[in-house]
Amino acid sequence: MNKVNVAIVGATGAVGTKILEKLIERNFPVQSIKLLASKRSAGTEIAAGGFNYIVEETVPESFEGIDIAFFSAGGSISEKFAPEAVKRGAVVIDNTSAFRMVEDIPLVVPEVNAQALSNHAGIIANPNCSTIQMVAALQPVKEKFGLSRIIVSTYQAVSGAGAEAIDELGSQSQQFEGRVANEAEILPSASAAKHYPIAFNAIPQIDVFDASGYTLEELKMMNETKKIFGDYEMSVTATCVRLPVVTGHSESVYIEVDQEGVTVEDIRASMEGAPGVVVQDNPAQQLYPMPLFAEGKDEVFVGRIRKDPNHAGGFHMWIVSDNLLKGAALNSVQIAEQLIRQ
Ligand code: A2P
Predict the structure, then answer these.
(1) Whether 168 and 106 share a structural domain
(2) Which CATH number covers residue 237?
(3) Ligand 1 lined by 38 (C-beta under 6 Å)
(4) Cα(57) to centroid of ligand 1, in Å?
(5) CB–CB of 263/314 below 8 Å?
(6) Which among 120, 249, 311, 316 is annotated as catalytic?
(7) What pLDDT does residue 180 have?
(8) Does residue 266 have a pLDDT over 60?
(9) 319/198 same-domain check
(10) 163 or 89, which is more confident?
(11) What is the CATH number of the domain that holds 97?
(12) Are residues 24 and 49 in the same domain?
């Protein structure tokens, strides 16, 4: 493998710090690593893998000599700086929603559609965290039995909304003295007109609403799933809910398969051994995935696989993964590894 010069934009954030960790942990073949953030963080020291890195302000010239630039600093920063990075010869792996639905930009989960990487023009989009874990788990089912319908409800962790949202859950939880604190500034989204407490609550709004009544997070899941699977006929609907969980997204997923006569055992067998997927499904032993135990793990965990009593090809399941790892940082690093292999 050739050694590459890497930049991480948003290196001080919830996902950026995990990208650095994963690069080191997976022995990614780096020549150099440049950590970039806002002007506020310039000069901050970050220790990782036995080295001390100094964070720099992100400017167009930051990307001179960079081969791969990971972006995780929000959509507007990607829109501003990703073209600057590409202009200077870097390949951008973007964690924001800025480019995901642009027709010619590959949207990649390596276990599902690595082949899409062979055709890029400098920018590769990393899908939404909730989408990644769902499509990674469902890929073997789709491949074996065909998939025509998905109805998903999510139970999402606050870390998906960034480091400030984790702080807000922490401070609201500490203020609990028999009564729930009312002050909130970050969730459901910093730009929203109203904010609600997340501690001891469930907020059925992630990102802002579209005229359709769906939130942008829900539309991301619906549209990105079709793009990654390359099947725009598939029926996909989502309801996305934020819960007071720090890390680890959970999803209640209903699917309809095309093939007749498929059993729960068939579904389970197709997922067992699939790359990056771990089946944890034994009700008799109370074995099922939970976000608390998925935190820090690379895999996507699946359990509670049941047949729908009312629909021949219908199945329900529970899919959990660390939203900062497979849902973001790990998937980005896996994309970079695949690029280098190609
Ligand atoms: P900073 O720490 O300097 O604000 P999170 O998703 O956890 O909230 O993190 C957001 C990341 O995006 C942080 O690393 C943050 O850096 C970075 N960021 C925010 N604004 C900018 C900007 N104008 N230019 C570059 N990075 C930015």
Answers:
(1) no
(2) 3.30.360.10
(3) yes
(4) 10
(5) no
(6) 249
(7) 77
(8) yes
(9) yes
(10) 89
(11) 3.40.50.720
(12) yes
Which pLDDT value is given to residue 1? 53
Report the percent of the chain where pLDDT is more than 90: 94
CA of 181 to the centre of ligand 1 (A): 27
Give yes or no for residue 224 having a pLDDT over 90: yes
As a whole number of Å, the end-to-end CA separation of the chain is: 10
CA-40 nearest atom, ligand 1: 3
| DSSP conformation letters of 251-283 | EEEEEEESSTT--HHHHHHHHTT-TTEEE--BG
Task: Identify whether residues 174 and 286 lie together within a single domain.
Answer: yes
Same structural domain for residues 108 and 220?
Answer: no
> How confident is the model over 106-162, as pLDDT tens digits?
999 999 999 999 999 999 999 999 999 999 999 999 999 999 999 999 999 999 999
Please tell me the predicted confidence (pLDDT) of residue 27: 97
CA distances for 9 relative to 6, 20, 63, 85, 161, angstroms: 10, 11, 10, 11, 17
Q: Read out DSSP for 21-66? A: HHHHHTT--EEEEEEEE-GGGTT-EEEETTEEEE-EE--GGGGTT-
- Helix (H) or strand (E) holding 134, with range, is helix 129-145
> What atom in ligand 1 is closest to the CA of residue 73?
12
Is 129 catalytic? The answer is: yes
Q: How many angstroms is it from 318 CA to the middle of ligand 1?
A: 32
Is 120 labeled as catalytic in the residue annotation? no
Do 149 and 214 share a structural domain?
Answer: yes
Please choose from 12, 40, 61, 186 the residue to mutate so as to test ligand 1's pocket, defined by most ligand atoms within 8 A of CB: 12
How many structural domains does the chain have? 2
* Ligand 1 mean position, distance from CA 15 (Å): 10
Q: What are phi and psi of 270, to 5 degrees?
A: -65, -30
Q: Is the pLDDT assigned to residue 34 strictly greater than 90? A: yes
Residue 292 scores a pLDDT above 70: yes
Per-residue pLDDT reduced to its tens digit, 230-258: 999 999 999 999 999 999 999 999 999 99
141 and 214: one domain?
A: yes
- Range of the structural domain that residue 16 is part of: 4-127+328-341
Name the closest-CA residue to atom 4, ligand 1: 38
Could you tell me if 217 and 310 lie in one domain? Answer: yes
Backbone angles phi, psi at 156, to 5 degrees: -100, 145
